[in-house]
TrEMBL record:
Pfam families: Cytochrom_C (PF00034). It comes from Pandoraea capi. InterPro entries: Cyt_c-like_dom (IPR009056), Cyt_c-like_dom_sf (IPR036909), Cytochrome_c-type_DH (IPR051459). Residues 36-57 are annotated as: Disordered. Keywords: Heme, Iron, Metal-binding. The keyword Metal-binding applies. Residues 42-53 have a biased composition (Pro residues). This is Cytochrome C oxidase Cbb3. Residues 118-220, 262-369, 383-473 form the Cytochrome c domain. It comes from the Bacteria. SUPFAM superfamilies: Cytochrome c.
Length: 491
């Protein structure tokens, strides 16, 4: 029934801004950032990949890879990598985050079209790891040609063309300008909304930025015009981003785990810089900024929640370093399968990470001394949940088995399922309401379609079913009520 989830603009302004105007700017900033991070924004699959599942479980709630006003290199709530493919060197990945602005970096001498094949290969690895296609390739469009609609409560953004087309894409950009977009959120002709997560990419090394640039310059140009964002006043104002960047753009992000090993340090770069995990999994403050006091502590918006990825929270849901590595690499682990926002992340991004990078990322999330995974209660008391059990046997057990252990190649286990074990029940409820489309994973593994029950079950029935699943298979409290379901159904 359910799997598991893990996972900008400046414009010219006058020299004087009144206090009243600044207040309006700050308000606009908050709303713009919220708009950019709408959890219901779809992430289209690469044309050659399976379609994205119905349920959106990892919100784009904080820039999760949403393209903003100008072409940008990479966007995705998923873990990314900074090394080359297995056959290429990975030296720059462990370098400290680059901090110099583009104004102090010497221009790249060789044109991108003449970039060495090794650099292009490495850039392709990075672009896949960073999930660029998710926001810059529409389902029926040319690779990286943009056009992806990114809906929000305040209007619709459209993914931009990042092919080397000189009129519509980034073909006129230099490597310096590309780096500045990633590092400072500034494109040649405008500044970016923080929907393009330069707040994380700011830590990216110049070498990795240049590699991604070289790869993008090697793809086929597409003469596809960029669509103008459809934003209403005051959300279409850009000047507020100047104040936002001044207040909140920092060089580094705090760590959620502890460690000093080579894997941990490498994983920090993968998660905090390229993977920009914090953009979805860290709570936001009043003005849409990352809450530095709660790194990777989980965040929620609208119908879905980006789960808490701190070591204790992962261990409480049964995760180990080995299981995380398997999940990122294949999309399936004992704790469930990738679906919702995490499904295209695996297909477009993390399945391409090297084994070393998968291990490093997983090590960083749990730390060098990972807490032991929490066991489930041996004999949960479901005596007061018979209505929910009967519903489970009637509509779920055929696929997930009467004892909740699932069926190989058909449906994941409910017993110990990471989504079932989340304290916040919204992802479980939304999955029951919306269903999950058929999933194909790397290799021969697949999971069949799960229908949504929004028209088959009442709010009361879904709350009863949710409570049974949480108590019987997740070790959680049976505290879901009809009102919670009703609210999620209406959103």
């Amino acid at each position: 029934m359910t799997g598991t989830t893990m996972h900008s603009t400046r414009a010219s302004r006058g020299s004087r801004v009144s206090r009243w105007g600044l207040r309006v700017a700050c308000l606009a900033t908050v709303l713009l950032v919220t708009a950019c991070n709408d959890s219901n924004t779809p992430k289209p699959p690469e044309p050659t990949q399976p379609p994205k599942p119905k349920t959106s479980m990892i919100p784009s709630l904080v820039t999760n890879a949403m393209a903003a006003d100008a072409p940008a290199a990479a966007s995705a709530p998923a873990a990314s990598a900074a090394t080359s493919a297995a056959s290429a060197p990975a030296a720059s990945a462990s370098e400290p985050a680059a901090k110099a602005s583009s104004a102090t970096v010497a221009p790249t001498s060789a044109p991108a079209s003449q970039a060495p094949s090794e650099l292009i290969t490495r850039g392709k690895y990075l672009a896949r790891a960073a999930d660029c296609a998710a926001c810059h390739t529409s389902a029926d469009g040319a690779p990286f040609a943009g056009g992806v609609p990114l809906k929000s409560p305040f209007g619709t953004f459209y993914g931009t063309n990042i092919t080397p087309d000189k009129t519509n894409g980034i073909g006129g950009w230099t490597a310096d300008e590309f780096y500045r977009a990633l590092h400072d959120g500034v494109a040649p002709d405008k500044v970016l909304y923080p929907a393009m997560p330069y707040t994380s990419y700011r830590q990216m090394t110049r070498a990795d930025s240049d590699a991604i640039y070289a790869y993008l310059m090697s793809v086929k140009p597409a003469a596809v015009p960029n669509r103008k964002h459809d934003l209403s006043f005051p959300y279409n104002m850009r000047f507020a981003m100047r104040a936002w960047d001044w207040m909140f753009l920092k060089d580094t992000l705090p760590d959620a785990s502890k460690g000093q090993s080579a894997d941990w340090l490498r994983g920090r770069y993968l998660a905090n810089a390229l993977g920009h995990c914090a953009e979805c999994h860290t709570p936001r403050g009043t003005f849409g900024q990352l809450d530095k006091a709660k790194p990777l502590g989980g965040a929620a918006l609208a119908r879905i929640a980006a789960p808490d990825l701190t070591p204790d929270a992962l261990a409480a849901r049964g995760w180990t370093v080995k299981d995380l590595q398997t999940f990122f690499g294949t999309g399936i682990a004992p704790q469930g399968s990738a679906f919702g926002e995490m499904y295209p992340v695996v297909h477009l991004s993390t399945q391409y990470l090297t084994g070393d990078d998968l291990r490093a990322l997983s090590t960083y999330l749990l730390g060098d001394a990972p807490p032991a995974p929490k066991p489930l209660p041996e004999h949960p008391d479901t005596s007061k949940l018979m209505a929910g059990r009967n519903l489970y046997l009637a509509v779920c057990a055929g696929c997930h088995a009467a004892d909740g252990t699932g069926k190989p190649h058909v449906a994941v286990s409910m017993l110990g399922n990471s989504t079932v074990r989340q304290k916040d029940p919204r992802n479980l409820i939304v999955t029951i309401l919306d269903g999950v489309e058929a999933q194909k994973f790397p290799g021969l593994e697949a999971m069949q379609d799960m229908p949504g029950f929004d028209r088959r079950l009442t709010d009361a029935q879904i709350s009863e079913l949710s409570n049974y699943l949480r108590v019987a298979y997740g070790g959680q409290a049976g505290d879901v009520n009809s009102e919670i379901v009703k609210q999620l159904r209406q959103k």
